[in-house]
Specification:
Blueprint lengths: L22 H7 L2 E3 L2 E3 L5 H21 L5 E5 L2 E6 L11 E6 L4 E7 L11 H8 L3 E4 L13 E3 L2 E2 L10 E7 L7 E5 L12 E11 L16 E7 L4 E6 L5 H11 L3 E9 L5 E3 L1 H8 L7 H7 L9 E7 L9 E2 L1
Antiparallel strand pairs: 1-2, 3-4, 3-18, 4-5, 5-14, 6-17, 7-16, 7-17, 8-9, 8-12, 10-11, 10-12, 12-15, 13-14, 13-15
Amino acid sequence: MRGPYRIRPLDSSNNLRLRIGSPSLLLKDAMVQSNSVLRPLTYTPIARFLFGIILVMSGGLSTATAQTLTGDQLGNGLSISVWSPHAQCPGVAPLVAVEIDPDRYRFTVHYYRQEGVSEPLDIRQWQERTGHDLVFNAGLFRENYAYLGLLYGNGRSLGSKRHATWQGLFAAEPAADRSPRARVLDLTFDTFDEERVPYREVAQSLMLLDRTGKVRVRQTGKRAYQTLVAEQSNGHLLLLKTTEVVSLYTLGECLRDAFPSLQQVMAMDGGSSSDIAVSPSLRQATSKMAGTHGWIPLLEDSLATHIGLPAVIGVSPRPEQTGVKAISK
């Protein structure tokens, strides 16, 4: 989505959550009194009935909060699947979900002016030029293709300045030899020193869902394709691409309620510039395997055209991972 005015300001309102009373309170409230003597709840038929309800509720919560993605493993540390949250989020269509282990895959930021090309390439051209296993749009930009927000490649600023209100920051490849190798930072809570840049690959964009569970955009009703980057509790990054238009606020609520392993989520871009490309060799290798590979047509058919993107982020195996073939999960 081009231009700095497509995204509304951050939402300062608090989000309300439904909380279920603890079993101990339910049990206490259900105690029955006969002849001024309290009888233990478990000795009555109604008690056994209520206790069964509590167990069912507890089991249902555990099932609802568990989220497992199954799909195709493109390499040791890179897998892709289709996540369908419709049961918990009726207004959200299936999303293509790419799980990336930063310890096995590295990230590289590319900007067209530093690549020696006269105009931005589309996502497929970027993939062909760079040879990455996977490429996705790095963020928002103006009509003149100037990137909006901080953008660093190989430790050097690519000419853009910090955006005053967007607090999401994709940061990868730490300058010091330390872990984690890739993060989603929230500049509301996290610091980023532009004098001593702590990460070599950086792209700033909009914070969608923060570590407190707050959706950080307003509910405007605007709907568009979206590309998101999320940090999971296991340290892996999750790249999410919608297959139908949806509002950012609705998507943020869905991820908060249906995907609890996500620590925080940033929105990279929306609209016609929301794009992901997987290398043809990986697509072809996957298509020859047994089973259904629903993500392939979803990625290829989600947008009719691919527009020029001034900046992208590429994902490739680290040297020790080179040569790993795509295998099915």
